[in-house]
Design a protein that fits this description.
Layout lengths: L3 H14 L8 E4 L7 H11 L12 E7 L7 H8 L3 E12 L9 H10 L2 E8 L4 E8 L8
Parallel strand pairs: 1-2, 2-3
Antiparallel strand pairs: 3-5, 4-5
Helix pairs in contact: 1-2, 3-4
Protein name: DUF3052 family protein
InterPro entries: DUF3052 (IPR021412)
């Protein structure tokens, strides 16, 4: 049995791994019954508000994209979710771990990110069933004068 303070620490660790800060606006895309509710709860706890759903019109700091192999075209979805994303915002593509139903190959995420002009910046383990891949806007190359 997990002590209450250990459960709280786990939630904080997940929010830390995802770089979630208080007052951030987080939009969730691709929710289904298989998502990790502990991850969702940790994010809501840290940002201090509920996650926005797919229909929200607000500018967001973070998009939490739950993605499975049979969810369609990842490139098209990334282009769609970039629309409300703030200039310094990030997209977390959360996928089932290897060996689980819906697993997505890392090369597929990398290809979709590259095509969408996003850069993959890190990968994290989010508990038993999910992995997270952080995507951000590519920075423009600095020109030498």
């Amino acid at each position: 049995m997990v002590a209450a303070e250990d459960a709280g620490k786990t939630e904080v660790d997940v929010a830390d791994k995802l770089d979630i800060e208080p007052d951030m606006v987080v939009q969730e895309i691709g929710w289904d019954e298989d998502v990790d509710d502990a991850v969702r709860a940790a994010i809501e706890e840290r940002c201090g508000s509920e996650l926005l759903d797919e229909d929200a019109d607000e500018v967001v700091d973070v998009v939490l994209l739950w993605w499975r192999d049979d969810d369609g075209d990842l490139t098209d979805t990334l282009l769609d979710v970039m629309t409300p994303l703030a200039d310094e915002g990030v997209i977390w593509v959360l996928t089932p771990k290897t060996g689980r139903a819906g697993h997505v190959e890392p090369s597929d995420i990398d290809e979709a990110a590259s095509t969408s002009n996003l850069a993959q910046t890190s990968n994290i383990n989010l508990g038993e069933g999910w992995m997270g891949t952080r995507l951000a806007y590519r920075k423009a190359a600095k020109t030498k004068r």
